[in-house]
Amino acid sequence: MFKAVWQAWGRIDLLCANAGIVDKSSVYIYNWRGKSVEDVPPEPDLSCTDIDYKGVIYGTILATHFMRHNKPKPGGQIVVNASIGAMFPHRSYPEYCGAKAAVVHFVRGVAPLLKSKEDIYINVVMPGAVETPIVPPEMIAAVSKDCLTPISTILAAHDRFIEDNTGMVGQALEGSADQLIFYEPVAYGNGYKSKRAVTVWEPLFRMMHGEDSQLDEAIP
């Protein structure tokens, strides 16, 4: 798909990473109760993680590759769809929530370097309950109409990032009913000591990625 767009237009300015499915098997394995201890459960279907999380990583890699070749100026934008389930777990869909939480942290993790090294601006939208084909209509009815989020709110959230000229990256924006709400990262529980545990150590970054991060806060 990326190649087809490039061949048609000669550039890629925006990736909206929107593909997603919910859990395809149950992590609770209630149907396995009563089995003998030797009767091990089968391997779960983790398609949800493959599409919802791995797909975002692969899409970001491909977008970065093509956006580096944009002329006259490399760079672009990436807007990823996660879910409010990334922040507040839905017990019916634990794998889905885990994948979407991973997406939010992935976006926050790569955002500073995509901006500083590639001029790529990546952010994430977290829709609330939206009436889509992956959600059973009975569940939509149970949520109640005033708690549903129309597609127009999700589009407004995307536009908030696409039309931004302030340079924001790594932001998580919930679209809920008719409201847009930014979510700040949680505070470091132990302050400086917690932060230091996840601060880039430049030799490790160089070993992993082939060059220095050049982040201001990196440990030499």
UniProtKB/TrEMBL annotation:
InterPro entries: NAD(P)-bd_dom_sf (IPR036291), Sc_DH/Rdtase_CS (IPR020904), SDR_fam (IPR002347). Keywords: NADP, Oxidoreductase. GO terms for cellular component: cytoplasm. Coiled coil: none annotated. SUPFAM superfamilies: NAD(P)-binding Rossmann-fold domains (SSF51735). One of its GO terms (molecular function) is oxidoreductase activity. Pfam families: adh_short (PF00106). Signal peptide: none annotated. Belongs to the short-chain dehydrogenases/reductases (SDR) family. This is Uncharacterized protein. It comes from Hortaea werneckii. The lineage of its organism: Eukaryota, Fungi, Dikarya, Ascomycota, Pezizomycotina.
